[in-house]
Structure formats: C-alpha cells, structure tokens
Amino acid sequence: QVQLVESGGGLVQAGGSLRLSCAASGSISRINGMAWYRQAPGKQRELVAYIATVGTTKYADSVKGRFTISRGNAENTMYLQMDSLKPEDTAVYYCKIIRQGLDYWGQGTQVTVSS
Fold first, then answer.
1. Distance between CA 50 and CA 32 in Å, rounded?
2. Per-residue confidence at 66, pLDDT binned at 50, 70, 90?
3. CA 45 → CA 26, 36, 87, distances in Å?
4. CA distance 53 to 8
C-alpha cells in the first residue's frame, strides 16, 4: 500500500506563488510516475502535471510556463511550484502515484486564488 499526503495549499492573491508538496510512504519502490491533478467545483478532475521516473515531464496547456513539477532528492517526495497564479487555478489539488499499474491518490489540498 501507498499513502500520500499533500501540503502547501492555501489562499493567495492573483499573481502570487505557492509550492505544493506530496510525501509518499509505504510501498514506494517501483513507482512508474507521479502526477498532480486538480478539481474545481462543478468540474471534472484534470491532469495538471506529470513526471516520470526518468524525469520526463508533461503539463496541461493551461499551466505551461507557470507551474513546475519536480521530485525531491528522496524518492518519496514530489513538488509543484505554482507561479503567476490565476483565479481559475482555484481547485483542490491531488497528488497521484502510478505503481505497478495501480493509481494511488492523496486526500487533496485546497488552493484558492483571489482576484
């Protein structure tokens, strides 16, 4: 089993920055990839950014150039640096680990961007 805990969410003004963290525990070997998703009220959950174990990254068009996904020195950590935040970035942000074909999700952290 894998347990994920997100942190770093909060309230920020438009144009500001936040850094989200995701810490994994449990069976964290043989991870295939890690990702950040978000879900705004009334909308479907969407992929924000993905990072493979080899370091390849992928971003949603809406966040390209503003968000940066990275992994920590420890294999069990992942970050999302969010700059130039916009009100439309307001959502609950979730981290996900793909391990041996299965998805593991965190509980989410709220990010609210005021105009």
1. 11
2. very high
3. 25, 10, 17
4. 23
Which of 37-53 are b and which e, b meaning 16 or more Cβ less than 10 Å from the residue's Cβ? bbeeeeeeeeebbbbee
Q: Are 81 and 63 in contact (CB under 8 A)?
A: no
Query: Distances from the Cα of 67 to the Cαs of 1, 4, 27, 47, 48, in angstroms?
Result: 29, 21, 28, 12, 9
User: In whole angstroms, what is the distance from residue 103 CA to residue 99 CA?
Assistant: 7
Q: What average pLDDT does the segment 102-109 reach?
A: 95
Contacts (Cβ under 8 Å, ≥6 apart) of 77: 21, 22, 23, 24, 71
Phi–psi pair at 94, nearest 5 degrees: -120, 140
Residue 76 CA to residue 56 CA, distance in Å, equals 17
Phi then psi for residue 73, to 5 deg, are -60, -35
Confidence of residue 72 (pLDDT cuts 50, 70, 90): confident
The answer to whether the CB of 87 falls within 8 A of the CB of 114 is: yes
